[in-house]
Each structure stands twice: as C-alpha cells, then as structure tokens.
Amino acid sequence: MSRWTLPPDRIPSAWFNVVPHLPTPPQPPLHPGTREPVVPEDLAPLFPTALIEQEVSAEPWVDVPGEVLDILRLWRPTPLVRATRLEKALGTPARIYFKDESISPSGSHKTNTAVAQAFYNAREGTTRLTTETGAGQWGTALSFAAAQFDLDLKVYMVRASYGQKPYRRIAIETWGGEVVPSPVDEPDHPGSLGSAISDAVRDCVGRSDTHYALGSVLNHVLLHQTMIGLEAKEQLALAGERLPDVVIAPCGGGSNLGGIAFPFVPDSGVRLLAVEPLSCPTLTQGRYDYDFGDTAGLTPLMPMYTLGHDFVPPSIHAGGLRYHGDSPLVSSLVKDERMEAVAYPQGKVFEAAIQFARTEGKIPAPECGHAIAATIDEALAAKETGEEKVILFNYCGHGFLDLAAYDDYTNGRLDEIG
Amino acid sequence: MSRWTLPPDRIPSAWFNVVPHLPTPPQPPLHPGTREPVVPEDLAPLFPTALIEQEVSAEPWVDVPGEVLDILRLWRPTPLVRATRLEKALGTPARIYFKDESISPSGSHKTNTAVAQAFYNAREGTTRLTTETGAGQWGTALSFAAAQFDLDLKVYMVRASYGQKPYRRIAIETWGGEVVPSPVDEPDHPGSLGSAISDAVRDCVGRSDTHYALGSVLNHVLLHQTMIGLEAKEQLALAGERLPDVVIAPCGGGSNLGGIAFPFVPDSGVRLLAVEPLSCPTLTQGRYDYDFGDTAGLTPLMPMYTLGHDFVPPSIHAGGLRYHGDSPLVSSLVKDERMEAVAYPQGKVFEAAIQFARTEGKIPAPECGHAIAATIDEALAAKETGEEKVILFNYCGHGFLDLAAYDDYTNGRLDEIG
C-alpha cells in the first residue's frame, strides 16, 4: 500500500498552536504609527474578534468550529502518499511521503484557512471581504470559501500574475469573486504581494461591512493550516513509521510550511526545512528585523526575516513565494535554529516538478516544485550515505492552473535568475 | 456525513461486463473492406491480444491485473459525495450523490482505462502508442499512463481544441507525450474526433513498435470504467441508500456513462440517463445503423447510433462530447429502451456548472456540466412531485483546464447553438 486515507469523521477537531513550543517567546507586532505593541482594538477594522484572539493566543490547542469542519470534510482528511515511483527513479533508500493538499476544491492548502476566515467573518456580521493574491492560489481559495458563506469578495491580484495566470482569475470569478490587477494606481507596475496587501487594506479600512483577509504570514493563518501536519502524523503511524527525519515545505509567507511542520516542532529529532526561491530569498538572505507586511506601511510592523518592504521581486512564475517578508512564527524558528532554510533557482524547481509528474503522475504547482527539488536532494544525499531516511513533504497544490509556466520552462522562456 | 471514502485496498479487483446483461445480444463489428464480421486477427495491428479478448468477451467479470491496481490505487477508490449544498439551493427533497472522478492524476475518469491499456500494450512488447483526443481529457490521461510504463506517445488533437485548450496540450507534453493538431493534412479544418482517429490509426498501421489506443466507444474501454459504478454501489450502501432511482452521466463516446451505469443495468428499477450536447445529438437525433468509427473509414463498421461518420460538429467547448457515433453497448441499451437519452444546449450546461461550483465548491469540466444540468432538472422535478428521489451522477472531471470556456460563457462569447 502506498496511500493512506482517513474517513471524513477523523478530521482533527482542534488546531495546533506552536506558540507554547517556541524556543523564544514571540515578540509583539508594533503599531505602524506609534511603534507601540498593537492592541486588539488596532486590528478590529481588519479582522473579526475570533481571529484577533487566535492571533495572540498562547493556548496549546484551539477548537475548530463545527461549521468549519462541515466544509473541510468535503475533502479532508487529505491522503498521505508514499512516492515509491520517485524513490525508485532516484534509487534512494529514503522513504518519501507527501501530504496531498492539491485535492481541495481550489487545488491547494490555502482552502483550509479560507474556510475558517470566511466563517468567523460571516458569524460576526461582515458581508464583504477584500484580499490580495499573488499566484492566485489564495484568491481562488477565498473565493470558494466566500461563496460557501454568501460573502462578497474583491481580490487585488499582483499584476504580473493577473497577466500570466488568466485561469486563476477566471476561477475566482467563477466562484463569484471580483478581481482587479494591483497596484491599482500604477498600471505599468508588475506588482508584488506587498503592494496588493496595501490595496486590499485601503479598500477595507473605513467600510463597516468589509473586513480584510490574509492568506499567509499571520499566526491565525498558520494555525488553521496545522490540520496538515496533525493528519500527517496520524497517517505516518498508519504507514508504520515513527517520526519523519525531515519535514520539507515551500515557503513564501510560511503558511503551508507552518501547516505541515509546526506539529513536529515538539519532536526535537525531526529536522524542519523551508524551501524558498533564489529570486526572493527572505529566510536565507534577508535580515531579521521589524518590518511592515505591505509596501505602503499600512500594516503593523512584524518581527521577521525581510528583504525590505519595498523589495520588488522579479516576475518569476512561482508567484506565491514572492513575498518580501515571512511569517513571524517561521522567522522565529529559523532564527532560533529549530528550522533550516534553503533557496532554489527556478530551473531546478521545474526540473524536479517534471520528474515528479512523470514518476508520481501529478503535476505540481511551481510553489510545490520547490519542496520537491529539496526532497530529491535529501533523497540523493541519503543514497550517498545509504541512510533509510524518512522524508515528508507538503504537496501543497496542483499545477493545472500554472501550465503556461511549464510551457515557458520547456521552451526556454523562463528567466533563469530565480 | 456527506462524503464516503474507501481505503485503497477496497478497490474492485474485477471489472463488470455488461454484455451478459444486455436485452439483445450484441451484433458484431464488420470489416471495413469485406463487411464481414471482424475476427481478432483484423484488430491485431491496432490492439494487444488481451484487449481484443476483452473486446469480444461475454464473461460476466474480468480480473484486473495487479500492476493496474497498483497504479489505480494512487487515487482509487474515488469518493462518493452527497451534494447537500446543491440540494438545499434547489429546495429539493431529492438526495443527490456524485462520484468524484476528478481526483485522478489527469483530472478525469479517462485515467481508469488509460492505465489498463498502457499496461497491456507494454506487457505485449509495444513501445509506442498513438491516439486521438478531443477536449484533451483522454490525451492527458494516456500521457500520464504511458509515462508509468515508459511508452512513447503521439497524440492527434482535434484542431479546434488544440487552439482553445493550450493547457491540455501542455499537460500532455509535461507527462512526456507529443501532440499535433488534427487533421494533419488540412491545416484549416477545425477537426473532429472522427478525423483524429483516422490520423492516429494511419500512424499506427504498419509500424510494428506501435499500437493504437482509443479513449471511449469500444467495449474494452467501457469495461475498464465500470470501477466507477461498482465503487458507487458499495458507497451508496455505506451512505444508507439501497439503489439510486436514476443514474446520470454525460455521453460523448459513452465511456464515463458506461462506467457508472453498467453495474446498475441488472437492477431493473434503476433509470439510466445519457446526457449529450444539443450540438452533437447522436443518441437523441441519430440513426441506429452500422457506421465507421472514424471519418476516413479505416475502422471497423460498428452497430451504433450515428450522425454519419462525415458529420463535423460545431466547435463548441465541451469538446469531449463531439463524436458522430456512440458506444455500441450504450447504443444497444438505448435502442432496447433500457437507457434514456436527453440533449442539452450549451448555455444551460454552463449555468448548471456555475451553480454547482458556487454551492458544492468544485468547478466541473463542461462535459460534466451536462450531467449536472440533467441532475438539476431531475431534482426540480422531484421538488414538484415531493418525491425523495435518489440521484447518482458521474462527476467525471474537473474544469481547471477548461476555464477559458467559463470566461467565454460569462462574457457572452459562446456560440449558443449547442
């Protein structure tokens, strides 16, 4: 057997909070004006109370509402798959497992937090959401979730992706969301996640019917993703494994990485590996400092690895990883050396993604290709040493909406810088 | 609970053959030259022996080889889902279930037979396959399967789809297949499944390393798809249902319809409903007669409903249903009134598909939208009568690679003829 499923009634009913397990207690975000620690009221124009509470919670577990579980059960628990065909192609003694988040309705892990955020907003009376999206994974996920709770949605899409990824835009519109390219006031600018966040926050502030939703970076977002790692732990046990030797995930803002890795933080023998694009090397080349989450300086200052909030990453295709900063929780773990980080160039990512497609049969999103590239290198290292290493990586999304990037790679049209 | 899964070791280990259950014994295909019944040797240039045996088999069950099961277990058994959100939106007392074939690696049911065909060809020493593809679902499925067995593949893609659906072409190439638009010798012709079959058969005949693979129509293809209905039966029992009142599936060549419906043929109380596009109304407006499977008259003559082998359907987007003929097994069931058929215009199909996306959260392939449109009508009829009808339909594929068609529909660019 090489695939482990769990029935819908075995979905975890509480999220795992990594905060009590951090080597260093988290530092607070600072108000962008006063530079004092933010208080919940500062965040009230943007988020519902429940999410603000989760943002600052130090409780080890947070209950998942039944209404959220009802929707997650449409596709969760997701399968854990052993990549035996890839192992064989590599000739490695390593056992490679991946958690298949691509089967969610919008095709990626982003749907996990989208449902929770839409639910809490609807429950507190919000009728409209704004958000940003880079590659479009988050925008599609939130559009799906907004439709489930009858919320209106406006998505500010990084202009480079808006042009390169029309299918993501159409998917958002099919679920009922509205999409505009960002930055809205600079039609020639390729955009960045930072500038799209500014647009979405500006649209939200001052409208009492509207809240803002973020698809990564924040503590509550990563909290919602921990379903991934919790299920994986249970499924690895079903597969007869104790713990993985290394857990690998791509990292842009940190949400799919946090989702699979955080439940393993207390297991000190488990290595945790973040994989980022060489063109946007936040964890590997950024500085650890307080910085804004957006370009315009509207968000609180967060303690994180950053390339500077005015950094404009090259318009590479793995757009979901093009963020100047990183989750404060992930940053804290990297700073304290509980988590490692590595950066990969784009060519190597697509090479790995195509090898995966031809062996395991699934075409990954380019973001996901980063984890696959690092997984292959870990497996080849195990081949050198003969070690029967257990590798777990997050298959965070499929690439059906990113096929133009594959075409560009195959035909030599990709910028090799990143 | 609204989703029923089965673990990978509960996949059916034998395919269901409908032939012993037909009201009228099947008539033989005829040789295109002599018009005499074909003998196995006539088919040997095209297909491996095992598939020829399955094509003429009257055994009630056919064992699935272990090597095929090993690959099918990557995604099978597929979930059975109750569409409670759609039921609620319609206000119907009907209980609507769908079998989710969209989670296969290539995103549709076609993968089921692709794996079996690639296996039998590889086992008998073939190293290269040719095939046709309309909308591209079959081409992607066979490219995935060919990669699993290290077979070379050349896909002749209906020219209209080649232009409208670049993502399908790229997916085929990503798995390693070669794609060319068809008809190869008429660069201005939009093409049809019939002409693409001619191209693929011509390429195959006379090359000893090459066989031909067909994605629908033939008995062995529909046999491989019966996994769908077999699993659905078991899962409906888990859901507490006896038998469905009606089983619904889209119908082009008949393979996803046969796959879900054939295991219910012996259950005389179960209605079986084929849904075809109004622009290519084979079952509802065609004649029952012997006709060629392709445009050029290279294939055997088959007893089926047909619009004539020189029929060129309009270039609508639901390309997978654009076939002049139909499966002889499906045709026989319709002729004997064991199966019903209905035709839907394209606008109504997309309207239904979008309602499904916004309620159930999944964006269907346009082909699949045909089944959804008919399901909605059955559910609304049940609302009129107050009947607690159980409806089962085949969610045969996702629409992530068909989003341009949604954009065209939403923006009024679709030809409303079909």
From TrEMBL, chains A, B:
Keyword Lyase carried by entry: yes
Residues where N6-(pyridoxal phosphate)lysine is found: K110
Catalysis: reaction(s): (1S,2R)-1-C-(indol-3-yl)glycerol 3-phosphate + L-serine = D-glyceraldehyde 3-phosphate + L-tryptophan + H2O
Cofactor(s) needed: pyridoxal 5'-phosphate
InterPro entries registered for this protein in UniProt: Trp_synth_b-like (IPR006316), Trp_synth_b_CS (IPR006653), Trp_synth_beta (IPR006654), Trp_synth_beta/beta-like (IPR023026), TrpB-like_PALP (IPR001926), TrpB-like_PALP_sf (IPR036052)
Residue span(s) of domain Tryptophan synthase beta chain-like PALP: 73-397
Function: The beta subunit is responsible for the synthesis of L-tryptophan from indole and L-serine.
Record protein name field: Tryptophan synthase beta chain
The organism of origin for this protein: Pseudonocardia tropica
